[in-house]
Amino acid sequence: MKKLIIWLADNKNTPKILIIIISFSILIRIGSAILLGNQISDLPGVSDQISYHNLGIRIANGYGFTFDRPWWPATPAGEPTAHWSYFYSIFVAAIYWVFGPQPLMVRLIQVLIVGFLHPVLVYQIGKHAFSEKIGLLAAAISSLYIYFIYYSATLMTEPF
């Protein structure tokens, strides 16, 4: 990540304002991750994070893609399920395997990725579809949009 930031900063084609937007995007999302903390709660609009947290723990502990008790929509305890994203569950499990079941670590790693990628991708789309100014404006808006900030720190697939 450090090399990528240095490359962006040294690249003559990267506007300095984009570096500021990306930095702000990452910092505000880190704040959101810290605010949500190391607990998994059934907050408005993000109840799926309970499932991804439980799947991450089960996969990291070697139980496979299963739940320890009957789970929505009709998954018996200990039976494999196909109702939840495999890639994201494995992402959570990998972090839990390294750091233990620490949702804050998932949140922090996720906000670093998303806080960087959202404004960069939105900037590129806006720049190529319209103009560099539109790309920068779109990147700034995406870095400030409250739902992107909120969801980027939840244990859900929506940020990606």
Question: What does it look like?
Answer:
With 160 residues, this protein is mainly α. The protein has one domain. 65% of the residues lie in helices and 0% in strands. The longest helix has 27 residues. The relative contact order is 0.18. The model has no long low-confidence stretch (mean pLDDT 92).
Write a compact overview of the structure shown.
This protein has 160 residues and is mostly helical. The chain contains seven helices and no strands. The protein has helices at 2-10, 16-36, 48-60, 86-99, 103-129, 132-144, 146-152.
- Domain unit count: 1
Secondary structure tally, helices: 7
Question: Which of globular, elongated, flat, extended, rod-shaped describes the shape?
Answer: elongated
Assembly context of the chains: single chain
Q: Which structural category fits the helices and strands? A: mainly alpha
The average pLDDT value, as a whole number, equals 92
End-to-end distance = 17 Å
Radius of gyration: 18 Å
Return residue spans where pLDDT drops below 50 for at least 5 consecutive residues. none
**Main sheet specs:** none
Order of helices and strands: HHHHHHH
Relative helix content = 55-70%
| Topology, number of strands | 0
**Beta-strand share of residues:** under 5%
